[in-house]
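May I ask for a protein sequence together with how it folds?
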Amino acid sequence: MALKEKEVYNSNNSSEKIYFKEKIGYASGDLACNLIYQTVSTYLLFFYTDVFGISAAAAGTMFLIVRGIDAISDPFIGTLVDKTISRFGKFRPYLLYGAFPFALLAILCFTTPQFSGGGKFIYAYITYIGLSITYTFINVPYGALTSAITRDSKEVVDLTSVRMFFANLGGVIVSFGVPLLAGAIGRTADSTKIGWQITMTIMGVAGALLLIFCFKNTKERVKVKEVHGNIKFADIFEQFRVNRPFVVLCVFFILIFGINSISNSVGIYYVTYNVGRPDLVKWYGLLGSLPALILMPFLPVLNKKLGKKNLMRVSLTITIAATLALLVIPATAISLILIARLLAAVGSLVAGGFMWALIPETIEYGDYKTGKRLGGLIYAMIGFFFKFGMALGGIVPGLVLQQFGYVAGHSQTPHALTGILITTAVIPAILLAVSLLVINLYELDEKRYAEVIKALEMRDR
């Protein structure tokens, strides 16, 4: 991808109508990422502890170290993306060139080579680090692509609602299909290890093909005046200083993705050991994603009726109440447990889905405040924070389970069961309460955003 020092564009098409075909094309990219990376974030800890043979504490530490490496790599990747000029555009080429390496590394993460204990650690670190960096090379430009498709806030919300529908369709497939496939293939092959490897191969190849489809069916139409040679890593510090909406979203992403990842990661333990129904794991996972298929198409309507902050407040409050309900619902009350899971998912999916529509606003606001449009760099930092949040799904459950005496593959002591319940209900509820406080600090309302866009379009004429 050739780089140029300066490129001058016009912005005549930045608010044109986005047709449904392109919305489907764009949304297929998030379906792809969820098929691969949500499988990793939801099941990799369990795979490491119960299949690969790594202790819960060691696996949790690995998740923390990998996120540290992400902290170093993400901003540099974002800077590279912002400087990119190619015949395919700024963001789309990364989808094309990263698709199959992403799938291959995911497959390798769920492959169990015949190595010694030390060899297993080295192999796990190399493959997981490689996967995380490759994911950044895809996810940063994919996320920033929204701001290059349109500046129209209504179109952004519509585009995001379709994207979140497909993302959560991926979540449904992963939650229900992955344990079903891994179990069925594992029984047929008489090997749990082969079951997981083949399942990840199916998810990986499907994800790679969907990324290619996304590349072919999207268009970068927002063109602005930019001086690419002036974009540098240090620009992110100025964004943290002047772009308060961006800072608020960074904190919010850590919390929401941390909550969702903790809930998803510990769910398999909670259903298997506390409830004593491993056969319900796929249904528990399904209820964590299924509501999005109904709710996401109504996201633009909910936003119009309630407004940004009220929509988030209502969603988070529902999730807090439903999550805490698991503390008092008996483990034998299966129906009540599944209802609580469903209600918690309703709130978290709406809040988690809507916050993606706010990121393009922070890019425009940052451009307005600094004169630099840093879509790649801002998404890289958002990407770091949400991946850090996702890492909590491995770090927190792993360390808490180790502290409470969890032993993989055995009947758990009452103390260990208490640790699983705390991780399932108490920790997420505390983080949700903090999220409720944080979102109140987001001050870029509809009127202010319209003023920012008007100023930017005047400048870029």
Remarks:
- The chain has one domain: 20-220+230-459.
